[in-house]
Amino acid sequence: MTSANVRQIVIDIISDIAPDEDVTNLDDKVSLREQLDLDSMDFLDIVMELRKRHKVEVPQEDYPKLATLESCVVYLSPKFA
Amino acid sequence: MSYDAIVIGAGMSGLAAGIRLAMFDKKVVILEKHSIPGGLNSYYQRRNFQKGGVRQFDVGLHALTNFIKKGEKGKPFSKLLKQLRLSYDDFKLCPQTYSKIVFPNIELKFSNDFELLCSEVVEKFPKEKDHFFNLVEKVKSFNELDLGLGYQSSREVLKTLISDDLLIEMLICPLLIYGSAWEDDMDFAQFVIMFKSLYFEGFSRPQGGVRTIISLLMKKLEELGAEVRFKASVNSIITRDGRAVGVDVGGEEILAPVILSSIGYPETCRLTPELADKVSPRVGAMTFLESIFVFDKKILPAQNDSTIIFYNNNKKYNYRPAINYFDESSAVVCFPDNYEMNQSQGEGTVRVTYMANYQQWRDLERNHYEDKKELVGQSALNLVKKLSPGFEGELLFKDIFSPLTIERYTWHLNGTVYGSIDKTRDGSTPISGLYIIGTDQGFLGIVGSILSGISLANLHGLMGAEG
Ligand SMILES: Cc1cc2nc3c(=O)[nH]c(=O)nc-3n(C[C@H](O)[C@H](O)[C@H](O)COP(=O)(O)OP(=O)(O)OC[C@H]3O[C@@H](n4cnc5c(N)ncnc54)[C@H](O)[C@@H]3O)c2cc1C
Fold first, then answer.
1. What pTM was estimated for this model as a whole?
2. Rounded mean pLDDT of A66-74?
């Protein structure tokens, strides 16, 4: 799976859990929390959706690795391989 | 039968917890003793003798707190929507006009625009202006969601900030009666939660009342395939070596490693001998009487256009069990017709809440019980007339329920509405796998208990279950 695919997977999940957010112009290097109204409960939902839709597990200590779109792609890509 | 999780109680917190667990494919069952959902905020109907058919009533709904406008972010209500994947429009919220705190010779109005309360305080307590804004800053910067906080007296904190006792009394009055398990005072974290929910955010009412909320939650559960069983009374919670393993429902054993109980902390202890050996949370004393009146017409705006009146006829606000069955010197009076978007035609409804005294009501003989309720109704009706000068509606129907009614239909010991005075803020108990959600986790009211169910299901049902 390409980086672009993984990036899109994350964006799709975010737009499902926070339907009011505009996800079209996100800066990959800036933390998602700064750009969107996401709190820790929403990050839990991202993790839960990754598991539910893609059988990808993110242990709690790795949540910080989901901070930016770029770090998401780096961290998640091997899990999708 | 075995499940990933069992939720005890289909009140607001239990329904919300069930949704969260089912959303992520946990096998969950909600067990409810009553025949319908809702718990302390359920619904009922009574025959309409004038016109035939039935009239619909809510058990508890005066106001949905934590009002937000569509699209507002980062607020408790927006979190609730996101976590349960519900849409704002489905709630059909009708905002309040304004509400007021009425003390002898003085009143303070507030609305869904916090500026109104600010200007009222500045106008009526000019010397307290800076003090009030210091309090507002303190409330804003306080992290009330820190689950590790201990009890701190709100009155003590308020005294360090505000000099005029009357202002303290007036500000704390609605917050106490809309959410304090403690007599005459409340935990400061709870004060902050309530201050934000009532004064910063405000009130609305879903069109259709509490049924609108309950049916949204029930529909969601159904879509997710969660199981809800009614008339399923949990007789005991089964434990083994300090771990919860399941429950007994009418002789049937249902097993699960995670049990979320919304029935109250002392009530949960009663069902769990191993827990009762370790803790004895106290039953709170605050319980209420609710009178509901239906008139042949609505109160006109010129007679009274406010949505909720927090009425107090004493110098101080006494928030404690009534000395003599019920305390008519203070009340909450709710005018559900004064939410915006309601029609001006048709019958009018008013609800009056008095503080009560559970022990006295329990000790009454049956025939005296009805007489006493009649007195409550008379007193409440006089208050409605006093607060709506010129209103001459004909009374078509009245219903009064007592602490005994609350106890009979929700099984909360002593008919308490705000639960135990010993909260377990992170929901944990000395029994692993057994967690308290809702009122006795410390988050109450409709929005609070829903958020409690959500966050504890997240913490112990979803995150705890990982890896
Ligand atoms: C008169 C009144 C007015 C109110 N007004 C408002 C208001 O205007 N706004 C607001 O936000 N809040 C209001 N409230 C408070 C609000 O209703 C509660 O805070 C909230 O509903 C509590 O929800 P909960 O899930 O914590 O508990 P509950 O609703 O008590 O849920 C517990 C459930 O467990 C069930 N149960 C008990 N024992 C067992 C057993 N052994 N087995 C299985 N099930 C069991 C009960 O039947 C109940 O359904 C009011 C309450 C009352 C009584």
1. 0.96
2. 96
Shared domain check, B456 and B379: no
Residue B81 maps to a domain: no
B258 and B294, same domain (yes or no): no
Is B442 domain-assigned? yes
Instruction: Provide the shortest C-alpha distance from residue A14 to chain B (in Å).
Output: 11
Q: With an 8 Å Cβ cutoff, is A60 touching chain B?
A: yes
Q: Is residue B73 part of a domain?
A: no
Q: How confident is the model at residue B263 (pLDDT cuts 50, 70, 90)?
A: very high
Domain count of chain B? 3
Percentage of chain B lying above the pLDDT 90 cut = 91
Whether residues B24 and A51 touch (CB distance < 8 A) is answered with yes
- Please give the mean pLDDT across all residues of chain B: 95
Same domain for B278 and B293? no
Residues B123 and B159: beta-carbon distance below 8 Å:
no
A65 at B interface, C-beta within 8 A: no
CA angle centred on B49, ends B47 and B52, rounded to 5°: 75
User: What residue numbers bound the domain in which B39 lies?
Assistant: 5-59+209-282+424-461
The residue in chain B having the minimum alpha-carbon distance to the alpha carbon of residue A15 is B82
Q: Nearest CA to CA, how far is B242 from chain A (Å)?
A: 26
| pLDDT tens digits, one per residue of B202-260 | 999 999 999 999 999 999 999 999 999 999 999 999 999 999 999 999 999 999 999 99
B110, B219: one domain: no
Residue type, position B109, single letter: K
| Predicted pLDDT at B342 | 65
The H or E element spanning position B254 is: strand B252-255
Q: For the residues of A3-63, what is the DSSP string, one character each?
A: HHHHHHHHHHHHHHHSTTS--TT--TTS-HHHHS---HHHHHHHHHHHHHHH-----GGGG
Domain A3-80 carries which CATH code?
1.10.1200.10
